[in-house]
Specification:
Helix 1 runs parallel beside helix 3, helix 2 packs antiparallel against helix 3 and helix 3 packs antiparallel against helix 4. The chain folds into two domains: about 30 residues, no CATH class; about 120 residues, no CATH class. By secondary structure, the protein is an all-alpha fold. The chain is built from four helices and no strands.
């Protein structure tokens, strides 16, 4: 009979009594995993890899903002569906980039997003606009303000989410 209160650590591969999955071999760690590998954090990307990821996130931010700016005034059955979908796309892109390589890629996607929204909010040479003046008399003219400031708010909220939500397990 084994001691119910062991004073030493169990040998590698030996089940820990009372631990979740102690009797289930599918839930136990494989026997070939050494003690030095258990609980090890995934390697961080190299400097070149991180720079490449940030540049790709910047391009992704430019694309997401361009699509969102072009579609944020879309109305479906009287509802601002384009605005909701554009903000949801921005949020999912921000979460993806934060999980991908941390705050650096989130900063890259945020920079690309802000650059694209600001450039696309300018009046074109022919007088066309994608971002409508909030005082305009068209339906959902406030959508442009909500799109530009709401997107920044979404990026900010993702930046302040707990780090443990994005930790690799």
């Amino acid at each position: 009979m084994s001691d119910p209160y062991p004073t030493s650590e169990p040998a590698p591969g030996e089940p820990v009594h009372g631990a979740p999955g102690a009797g289930d071999p599918d839930l136990q760690e494989p026997a070939d995993v050494g003690a030095e590998q258990v609980g090890q954090v995934a390697p961080t990307p190299t400097r070149l890899g991180l720079v490449l990821r940030v540049l790709l996130a910047l391009v992704l931010g430019l694309l997401v903002a361009a699509v969102g700016t072009a579609t944020h005034r879309t109305v479906w059955n009287g509802l601002p569906a384009g605005l909701v979908l554009a903000l949801a796309l921005t949020a999912s892109t921000a979460v993806l980039c934060r999980a991908w390589a941390g705050l650096a890629t989130l900063a890259g996607v945020a920079a690309g997003w802000i650059i694209a929204v600001e450039v696309l909010s300018l009046t074109a040479s022919g007088g066309d606009v994608l971002m409508v003046d909030p005082g305009a008399t068209i339906r959902f003219a406030q959508a442009s303000v909500v799109w530009s400031w709401g997107g920044v708010a979404v990026l900010g909220v993702v930046a302040f989410l707990p780090r443990r939500w994005f930790a690799r397990r």
